[in-house]
Amino acid sequence: MTPLTLTMQAFGPFAGSETIDFTALGRSPLFLINGPTGAGKSSILDAICFALYGQTTGNERDAVQMRCDQADASLLTEVSLTFRLRDAMYRVRRVPLQERPKASGEGTTTQTAEAQLWRLTPEGEEDECLVARKVTDATAELQALIGLDANQFRQVMVLPQGKFRELLLAGSKEREVIFSQLFQTQVFQRIEERLRTQANQIERAVSDHRQHINGILAGGELESEAALAQELESLTPQVGQSRERFETAQQQRRRAEQQRDEALALQRQFEARDALAADKARHLEQRGEVENSQLRLAQSAHAQALRPQKATLDQAQQALATAQAEQHQAHAALTTQRTSAEQAQQALESARQRQAELPELRERHRQLGEFIQKSQQLSELQRHFQTSQTAWQQADEALKRDEQQLDGIRQQGEAIGVHLERLQSEFQQLASAPAELSRHHHLLALRQELDELTQQRQALITQQQQAKNALSHQQGETERAERYATEQEMRWHQGQAALLALTLEQDAPCPVCGSLEHPAPAINRAELVTQAQVEDARTVQEQARQALQRAERHHHQLTQHIDSHTEQAQRLTQQLGEWASQPLLALQQAYENLRHQVQRREQVEVEIRQQTAARESLRREWGTLDKQLKAQRPEVEKAKESALRLESQRDQLSQSLPEDARYPEAMRQTLAELEQHIAQLEKAWESAQQALSTSQTQLARAEEQLRGANERVERSEQSLQQARAEWQAALQASPFGDEAEYQAAQLNDAQRQELTHRVEAYQRRLAELEGALENYQTQLAEKTPPDLAALTAQAESAQAQENSQLETWRQLDGRLTTLQNIHQKLAAAHASQAELEAQYQLWGTLSDVANGRTGHRISLQRFVLGVLLDDVLIQASERLVRMSRGRYQLVRREDPSKGNKASGLELDVADTYTGKNRPVATLSGGESFMAALSLALGLSDVVQAYAGGIQLNTLFIDEGFGSLDQDALDQAIAMLSELQMSGRMIGIISHVSELKEQMPVRIEVSASRHGSSVAVKGALS
Question: What is one Pfam family matched by this protein (predicted)?
């Protein structure tokens, strides 16, 4: 981030509006911010930090307190910062909460805090509004863009007055947060979490497998795998024995069923024999009917012999009837032909009379032909006139239609223009929706994280209260143990004195004091306490003390966790702003509303493109249609002139024709009718002549047919008499008394076949019954009917015995199969569990190593950050060695921290004078400034060198140079000059006069009773 311009209005000591153009300082300048104490040098850094994060650099003054007391009441306190980040430019404006005069009337009103953020064009113009008003939204968006929060920004880009040692003295945990943001090493943290999650999943899977094994045993109602093996061993021979018993019962059942089936077959043979005997008796009852059918077949054979004579008689009768019918038809035809000949003669006479009209009709035909020719010319002119008139009318209608269409296109274009303006206005209103959606998405994630932290914190508070109660209880136990141990030790000493008193003798020196007199020897008033009892009491006391220490550590750890959660919650609350106090549902609803706005914005954008394309299409269509209209108008006039000219020619020709000859179609119809009439007259004359000739020929043929029919009737009568005589002779020679008996004996082929089939079927069935009955008599000659009921009962008993044995075998075999399946499942489960345990050995080890649970308790991310910190320390130590004249170097502490405190990123200073490493906190003020400055510069170098890191293009240093001697000051300025040449902007706030002499480019801050002002001075490059 590189500042370009900074505008401060009624801010800090600046009563008016002051603008600093950092671009006027030159490209990547090294400049001094100079001025008297209290003039407002640090307020410039406060303004930059306030514009970006809404906080001052020291975070000791509230933004509300930054209003200038000398400022005019109507002038708002606000800060505007234009800066470059990577290849883009942005502008942010912030207004803090303040009181301002009312727009109307007296008194003041509260001006709420607001912030705006824009993305700028390369020319510096406002391009896109990323945040419209909300302070928290602007802070979140800027934090996401820069990649640092306010605290991290103050530690790596702005070294405020009195705060330059924070990064130097930060612990591993704080430095890990800063470095992970700067170097984007969150991927290693995700690897740690992924390994921890995988290890936990495998551990749960191992536990689930153990439960699965217990479930397998429980499913088989087994207490253990040993019980499974024992039952398998005892059950296997029982299954074999049960199967043998079942097979024996099965064989007995088969023998009983075989005997029952043989008896059933014999019983069926006896029943079949009796059934055949009954069938034969019923069949013999049909003998009389069959003999009657045989008699009818014999009479039919005699009648068949008389059939030729009968057929000859029938043919003679038929021939006579046919000849008589032909005779009658010939007589009727002769009468009809005579009438037709008379009519044909009369038609010929009538046709001869109409023949005289033909000459007059032919003359009329010639005149009509001449009129038709002229009428055709008139019709041709009429047709051309109508065609031309139609073309004129169509062209005129097309012209009017196109003019209407042109007017419609204009109206559509106007409507699309109005709709397009409305859409563009709506699109402009929704311009900030995507940025707002992205910001609310980030806020929603922060809010969910805050709710989760709140829940965790409540759980930790509950645990802390429990730990506090346990700690109080353990303190009481420890105190009681201490009192008891002290009492026991006192009683032991008292007991020892009493024992010693028993050894005292009169006039003998006391082994303690040497006195010869013993006026008050110790007396044991209680039970003696042994040394072992004292040691036991001390052991209990030590155990209670250790338990108290564990309870204190546990309570302290919980307190630290709560503090950490509180700090994170405060950070999230600060980032969330007013959304931290709103319900989560409200934030989700706001997010959904913004998502709908983004969707609507996309729809409006599509509609704008569609409407713009439609408007362009209408414009093209309007131009094409306008050109077409300009070409159509002359064509319409030309068609009109042609129609009028043809109309005049038509009228002249029409006047030259008679009134009745002006209609060619009517004349053609009359001519056709005349031609048809002439043709009919000519055809009628020819037809009459032909009809007379034909009728005379047909009359002669009818007379000849009548003579032939008479001759055939005579011959048929003679043949009939002869056939009747022959029939009578044959009938008298037959067994029939008359012709009626002959007719009664007649049978057709179907009747004869039916009777024959009936007789043959009766005889064939009788033979079959007799043969089968004789066969059964032979087979059953020496056999008796079986006792089927007894054999059936025997088979059912055998079947029941088999079913019983089968059920017993199935139960035992099913249990054996179940146990075998359980044995296989257990083997597979043990194999899976072994595999899972092998996986856990791998993943668990990787998780422990990556999450810092082994060795020096350094996590993977902290290890990577440690390597990066080593690179930073190499760069920082090069500068520190120069400024400290070879005495100091910054090194990373290798020893792990005590307890569970995070380690791996602590700093020490290597003192070459003593040859030892010591904490950086032991450095003096000037030494700390040199170390902090070296660390900041080294960090800037390394961050710039790593691709994808956050760009630290700017560094502001507020005071600290006054603690350096002249040599160290020269070295510091030389290093800053080198750093400036690498493309960084470096600003220094200091009162040191030597700096003013060495740094010609500076920002002068002047103070007065009316407020401070700023001015850029010095030679620019």
Answer: SbcC_Walker_B
Write out the two tokens for 660.
């009745």
Edge-to-edge strand ranges of the sheet holding 30-34? 158-159, 954-958, 985-989, 30-34, 1002-1006, 1013-1017
Q: What angle do CA 679, 680, 685 make, to 5 degrees?
A: 100
Q: Is the dihedral of CA 19, 24, 25, 26 positive or negative?
A: positive
CA atoms of 651 and 397, how far apart (whole Å): 26
CA-CA-CA-CA dihedral for 880, 881, 884, 890, to nearest 10: 50
Q: Say which residue the tokens 């009938």 belong to.
A: 731
The DSSP secondary structure of 15-44, one letter per residue, reads EEEEEEEGGGG-SS-EEEEE--TTSSHHHH
- Helix, strand counts (H, E) of the chain: 21, 17
In 285-357, which residue ranges form alpha helices assigned H by DSSP? 287-305, 307-354
Give backbone dihedrals phi and psi of 476, rounded to 5 degrees, phi first: -65, -40
- Most confidently modeled of 552-556, 641-645, 901-905? 552-556
- Cα separation, 470 vs 558, whole angstroms: 13
Instruction: Report, as an integer, the average pLDDT of 528-549.
Output: 83
CB 92 within 8 A of CB 74: no
User: How far, in Å, CA of 312 to CA of 326, rounded?
Assistant: 21
For residue 91, give the nearest of 74, 78, 100, 110 by alpha carbon: 78
Collect all residues with Cβ–Cβ distance below 8 Å to 1021 and sequence separation of at least 6. Answer: 26, 27
Percent composition of the chain: helix, strand, coil (DSSP 3-state, to 5): 70, 10, 20
Integer Cα distance of 649 and 382 in angstroms: 9
What length is written for the chain? 1021
- Provide Rg for the chain, Cα atoms: 67
What's the CA gap between 204 and 844, in Å, rounded? Answer: 12
Measuring CA to CA, how many Å separate 10 from each of 14, 51, 313, 478, 1003? 5, 14, 153, 63, 19
Judged against a pLDDT cut of 70, whether residue 460 lies above it is answered with yes
What torsion, rounded to 10 degrees, do the Cα atoms 568, 574, 575, 579 define?
A: 110
End-to-end distance of the chain based on CA atoms, in angstroms?
Answer: 21
Residue 514 has pLDDT above 90, yes or no: no
Neighbours of 941 (CB within 10 A): 20
**Cα angle value 446/452/455 (rounded, 5°):** 140
Give me the sheet containing 907-911, strands edge to edge.
Answer: 888-892, 907-911, 916-919
Alpha carbon distance 101, 110 (integer Å): 9
Mean pLDDT computed over 756-771: 82
What are the tens digits of pLDDT across the range 142-198? 888 887 777 767 766 766 555 556 667 777 777 777 666 666 666 777 777 787 777
- For residue 688 the two structure tokens come to 């009459």
CA distance 12 to 15: 8
Tokens 């004129």 -> residue = 392
DSSP letters, 226-272, are HHHHHHHHHHHHHHHHHHHHHHHHHHHHHHHHHHHHHHHHHHHHHHH
* Nearest C-alpha neighbor of 108 from the set 133, 152, 73: 73
> Residues 736, 739, 741, CA angle at the centre, nearest 5°?
50
DSSP for residue 707:
H
Residue 872: both structure tokens together: 């930073």
Note if the pTM is more than 0.85: no
Residue 106: CA count within 13 A, CB half-sphere: 0
Query: In this structure, which amino acid lies at residue 313?
Result: L
Contacts of 893 (CB under 8 A, 6+ apart): 903, 906, 907, 908, 917
Paired with 6 in beta bridges are: 20, 81
Both tokens assigned to 108: 């003041």
The helix-helix angle for 172-183 and 925-945 (nearest 10°) equals 30
